[in-house]
Design a protein that fits this description.
Length: 306
């Protein structure tokens, strides 16, 4: 069995290249170059022999190693920041050895191995430590590498988005005090928005059931009416995403206030619940959140109140 991420990358690369797959190898086939890349891959996050950028970044972002409680006064943060910056300097120097943005002349296994850590740190560090990696003038090679990775179609297919990652840090890792994620500008009617609408419509029954189960709704409406109101709100979100007229006539006027309350809470919950790439692509999740935020805000305008 193979379970270490870097070993999996190597095994998959060799398996694909030994078959009938086309495309350029992401690992040198033989000789000193192959040995060097494999050695770097093995030592990538070692504090002694590698860049250690992954562990240093996570520890600085969280304020302590995983399993440890961060000091309440944050007295250790300056030292953690310096350790992280030392790792960034090493990464910057390594990336400047090649003319392009990647570790080697072309995209390869080292880029793949480092991407998950840097993707998460690029999302979390601005929120939790006011530390920017994307577009950094202090570390231009790192910024160029992030931009190059962000632009790759395969990366965009599996990438998460900042909203998903920040909520992950808060809920799973227990991190607190970060700036709340904000919605990116809406671009309704485009490919990403249509993807979000299609996924929402296809899974609307499961989404509605999840909202009823986990959103903590408090309403005078029956469960049956509540589910119908939630379904109507999902239809409104889908209509907004694809740029079509919205129909709110399904909700009886006598339920106006209660329905508006349910819609506001349900869509606020869905906005935080959607996860990329679990539910949809990162760009689609961004559009879904934006549509949910708008519809949640205008619920009382749309349905009225008693």
């Amino acid at each position: 069995a193979v379970w270490e991420s870097n070993d999996i990358i190597t095994v998959l690369e060799e398996a694909l290249r030994s078959g009938e797959q086309s495309g350029k190898s992401m690992l040198p086939s033989a000789g000193p170059s192959r040995e060097r890349v494999l050695a770097e891959l093995t030592a990538l996050d070692s504090p002694q022999t590698g860049l250690a950028i992954g562990s240093a970044g996570y520890v600085y972002m969280r304020g302590a190693s995983f399993g440890e409680k961060p000091p309440a006064d944050g007295a250790n943060l300056p030292a953690l920041r310096e350790t992280f910056i030392d790792s960034l300097r090493a990464l910057e120097e390594r990336l400047t050895r090649t003319p392009g943005p990647y570790f080697e002349e072309d995209f390869g296994v080292l880029d793949i191995a480092l991407w998950p850590s840097l993707e998460r740190q690029a999302a979390g560090l601005p929120a939790f430590r006011s530390f920017q990696l994307r577009g950094s003038k202090d570390f231009p090679a790192v910024a160029a590498w992030l931009a190059a990775m962000d632009s790759r179609p395969a990366v965009r297919t599996v990438a998460s988005d900042d909203g998903t990652l920040l909520r992950l840090f808060s809920r799973v890792f227990g991190m607190a005090g970060g700036a709340p994620p904000s919605d990116a500008p809406a671009e309704f009617g485009g490919h990403a928005a249509k993807e979000a609408a299609a996924k929402l419509v296809r899974n609307r029954a499961a989404v509605a059931a999840d909202i009823v189960e986990h959103a903590g709704l408090s309403s005078s409406l029956t469960r049956e009416v509540t589910l119908d109101v939630i379904d109507a709100s999902l239809a409104l979100v889908a209509s907004r995403l694809v740029g079509e007229p919205a129909d709110s006539s399904r909700v009886p006027k006598e339920h106006a206030s209660a329905a508006a309350s349910v819609v506001s809470a349900a869509l606020a919950f869905l906005r935080t619940r959607v996860s990329a790439p679990r539910d949809m692509s990162a760009s689609a999740a961004v559009q879904l959140r934006a549509a949910c935020a708008i519809e949640a805000a205008v619920a009382y305008d749309r349905f009225g109140y008693n």
